[in-house]
Amino acid sequence: MKYESKIQTIKSIIAQNVGVELSVLRLDCMHPWVNGNKWFKLKYNLMEARDKNFTTVLTFGGAYSNHIYATAAAGNLLGFHTIGVIRGEETLPLNPTLSFATQQGMQLFYIDRETYRHRNAIALQKDLQQRFGEVFFIPEGGSNLNGVRGCTEILPKHSAFDTICLACGTGTTLAGIALSLHPKQRVIGFPVLKNGDFLALEIEQLLTNYLASGLPVPSNFSPSWKLICDYHFGGYAKVNNQLLTFSQQFTQDHGVPLDYVYTAKMFYGVMDLLQQEFFSIGDRLLLIHTGGLQGNQGLETHKSCSHNHS
């Protein structure tokens, strides 16, 4: 699948008032099923699986996981059998995310939350291999060096932006983008989890491991990044009316649908920071839309979900 970047300028009075230019990188428009940062996180994982002649890919996620959704679709497109290890009990009928995954041929296997905490442990992976045979493991969210490597390809080459903003779950996407920055560029991550400061250590670890791995790094590498942890709205997948109203209004004003778990929180944070004059006059901001719109239908039956997100 070829990736063509689509950048949309946002005409915002709030941004104009403080002399800041606002644009959105629309990764949600790449492909109907495998889009956003998921495509980049899966790219080198699936290439490695193919190079090593694996026919089955096994990965992990929650019941509304964008990663499960995208892995099922990408596996189907590329001819892999896929297995999704799902956190928690099976609930029937399946929600839209898991229903789609099974339609794409993914086999679902449920484990309790306590066991799920050990998803990266060798003992559990051995158990899963005994059950399913030879499988290629992709960690939850594609959060490994293959995932980071893919995310180094997100930013358009020679982009003339000063500040890149994105929502953070595992920090993998931010690490990849930090590795691809030009000098004088910086990236700001907005964790969607409560107490998201812990991600700083995870990102440092990903960067350290990546640099030690011998994988390609730009010659002018100078990562400048920070986290702003004030816009999680109560924690992962927590949504309130304030966020829903903002999201709905933003879509109406600018024609950009937002997902509630990730992108809406980051956009809200950026607009709030603009009003606080956090950014410098003349700053050119690029907000990364990391996809994930499929999760809206499962999380919220609010009428703002009835927008056509195709």
Description:
This protein is an alpha/beta fold. It has two domains: 7-33 and 146-306, Rossmann fold (3-Layer(aba) Sandwich); 37-142, Rossmann fold (3-Layer(aba) Sandwich), CATH 3.40.50. The protein has helices at 13-17, 37-51, 66-78, 96-103, 113-116, 122-132, 145-151, 172-179, 199-213, 241-254, 263-275, 294-299, and strands at residues 7-9, 21-26, 56-61, 81-87, 107-111, 136-138, 163-168, 186-191, 225-227, 284-289. The strands form two sheets. A six-stranded mixed sheet has the order 1-2-10-7-8-9, sandwiched between helices. A four-stranded parallel sheet has the order 5-4-3-6. Helix 8 links the parallel strand 7 (163-168) and strand 8.
Quick overview of this protein structure:
With 310 residues, the chain is α/β, with parallel strands linked by helices.
- Helical region count? 12
Might you state the CATH topology name of the largest domain?
Answer: Rossmann fold
The biggest sheet amounts to: 6 strands, mixed
Q: Class by helix and strand content?
A: alpha/beta
Beta strand %? 15-25%
Identify low-pLDDT runs.
Answer: 301-310
Question: Radius of gyration from the CA trace?
Answer: 19 Å
Q: Would you identify the CATH architecture of the largest domain?
A: 3-Layer(aba) Sandwich
What is the element string, with H for helices and E for strands? Answer: EHEHEHEHEHHEHEHEHEHHEH
As a percent range, the share of helical residues equals 25-40%
